[in-house]
Amino acid sequence: MPRLRLRVMAASLSTLACVLAGCGSGDDGPDHGRRPDGAHVTIRVPADAPTISDAVSLARPGDLVLVAPGVYHESVKVSTPRITLRGESRDKVVIDGRTRQPNGIVVSAPGVAVQNLTVRNNTQNGVLVTGSAKAAAGLPGRSGGYDTGDEPVTFLKSFLVSHVTATRNGLYGIYAFSAQNGVIEHSYASGAADSGIYVGQCKPCRIVVRDNIAELNAVGYEGTNAGGDMYVVGNRFAGNRVGLTTNSDHQEKLLPQRDAVIAGNLIAANQQRATPEQADGGWGTGIGVDGGSGNRFLRNRVTGNSTAGLVITATADIPPVGNQIVDNTFDGNGVDVGWSFPTATRGRGNCLRGNALDSTAPARLATTAACPLPAKAPSPTGTWATPTAPGGIPFTEVAAPGPQPQFPHAATTGATVVPAVPALPEPADVPLPPVSLLAAHARVRTP
């Protein structure tokens, strides 16, 4: 047996013995026995532990859980801070819920990195990162959203989800709920019956969603009650029913949604039929702002969305206020920008500047609502054609993804150190994306 494996097994057994004996805990919380030398180790699955859950239970802060190719039928709960859970092969390390469990991976501790694996066939979420005990237990979510009742808002602080494929999950592919200071990057989400990537209930979020592909979902990306240093940049949201939404919702806490930056994304052809039905019947819309305020939409390419490129409306009693639509390129949409307020709740101070666009509803918005605009200026309302959404398919029948890019040197790189606060993008540095953004690894082609 190689010496390295002997050392890993010895360290793991020492840790397990310490836990069983009730060794004293340190700064990382109770029940976390320390190795005598404080060393960080790699725990391999199945060589050192038969299941991923077993390996995670052995891991201590700073350790790497490295998973060999295989299909693992388990729900993995990560409650130890600062460990890295990584697959050796993104496409061949598969956590498969067989539609028998709510979540594939649940992260409830800070500083955890989840990397280079596939999570599929869960009734709720592929990867859930949360500070909510109710959400971590899988209690909410059955009606398509997370209402945690009178549970106080508790944030999980710092996380990383990178090079993860989340497909065919019954609610969300990758879900950060009641979490702050994190990054979701280089990942792929498809077949979610709600949204491929979701960020909910954070303020300030200090979360970056970047360089991801979300396709063949009901909604590509959704941010609910998520704002304050919330960045969605350089993603491909194409071939869903709805590309992206940012909204306020009474079902979650921290109303209203505000202050997100949506920049440099390709949001295209979001009228894909072979997808799960969108809960609100949305179809053919690139960007939807529903009761969100103070958001900046910068240099996005919004093209080929059959109903509308960007829509602003109100959520019940919550008006959208002060959203800025600046330097975006709109092309081939049913209407490029449409504002609609069918109830007494109206928007205020929403404005446009420097966009390439052909049509708005009401007409001439680029002139009548040009930025800057007084915060109290009423937003007019318009109408346009909104076709009935066609029937969808079960999330379990969505087309499987193709091979996705691997985390570099996954099997030989040590554990990832997740920063307490991620580096946040400079919006001015985010360019307008090409039509070909991330196309090499997408199934849905855009015009």
From TrEMBL:
Q: Which PROSITE patterns match?
A: PROKAR_LIPOPROTEIN
Signal sequence range: 1-21
Write down the superkingdom of origin.
Answer: Bacteria
Q: Which SMART domains match?
A: PbH1 (SM00710)
Q: Which InterPro entries match?
A: Beta_helix, PbH1, Pectin_lyas_fold, Pectin_lyase_fold/virulence, SCF-Subunits/Alg-Epimerases
Ordered alphabetically, the record's keywords are:
Repeat, Signal
Q: Domain Right handed beta helix spans what residues?
A: 160-330
Keyword tRNA-binding: yes or no? no
Protein name as catalogued: Right handed beta helix domain-containing protein
The species is Streptomyces rubradiris
